[in-house]
Amino acid sequence: QSALTQPASVSGSPGQSITISCTGTSSDVGSYNLVSWYQQHPGKAPKLMIYEGSKRPSGVSNRFSGSKSGNTASLTISGLQAEDEADYYCCSYAGSSTLFGGGTKLTVL
Amino acid sequence: EVQLVESGGGLVQPGGSLRLSCAASGFTFSSYWMSWVRQAPGKGLEWVANIKQDGSEKYYVDSVKGRFTISRDNAKNSLYLQMNSLRAEDTAVYYCARLRRSLSGYYSDYWGQGTLVTVSS
């Protein structure tokens, strides 16, 4: 049950786009289109941003998008805004368990 | 409005026990899988356990198997986590979350605010 691999940090300027990768294996990310992404601000509960790889819950900005290629899922945030600064976690179904990525801290410069 | 409210956290000595509760409202609790997810101070999210709607299936992360038990009471709209033989590494904020699970989807769409468990002498 190894965690999914995410970059520890990414940064971008307001208005720019960034992409956060999430690498797993053929037993989790690669086997299922069941990756979700969560945003977490300091001291707050996680918030669902993307599910089923690329779908957005109601109320989530269309600046957030998800994709997958092979064993790697990606979260792209376009038109960066100050309020996007947060930690982001990917998550994948893995049979009888659930795997989270280690988290990526997004800094908006 | 969907609400999940955790309680039961606190300070406990190593080897001790604690029972967390999660009170659910605003949805038909008995229709959903539920999860516990924890976050150690300054660390990332870690899945702890899942339970099926009727409690017939339960899954745990390896590090808590044999020590933690997830359960639910659908009549009380409540989810529980019984934690025994606690260790310092179990120190974390524990979140309960509603799990949407199907052939096409697997995600937690609502989360509680969390309850802090500190294991220390």
Overall pLDDT metric of chain A: 93
Number of strands of chain B: 11
What is the residue-mean pLDDT of chain B, rounded to a whole number? 96
> What's the tally of helices of chain A?
0
Q: Which structural class fits the helix and strand makeup of chain A?
A: mainly beta
For the sheet with most strands of chain A, the description reads:
6 strands, mixed
Shape of chain B: globular
Find the count of extended strands of chain A (DSSP E, 2+ residues).
9
- Note the overall shape of chain A: globular
Structural class of chain B: mainly beta
Cα-based radius of gyration of chain A, to the nearest Å: 13 Å
In terms of per-residue confidence, which ranges of chain B show pLDDT below 50 for 5 or more consecutive residues? Answer: none
Biggest interface pair, counts: A-B, 28 and 23 residues
Helix content of chain B: under 10%
Assembly type of the chains comes to heterodimer
Uncertain ranges of chain A: none
Q: Hey, roughly how much beta strand do the residues of chain A contain? A: over 45%
Main sheet record of chain B:
7 strands, mixed
Measured on Cα atoms, how large is the radius of gyration of chain B?
14 Å
Termini separation of chain B: 40 Å
Task: For the record, give the distance between the C-alpha atoms at the N and C termini of chain A, rounded to a whole number.
Answer: 35 Å
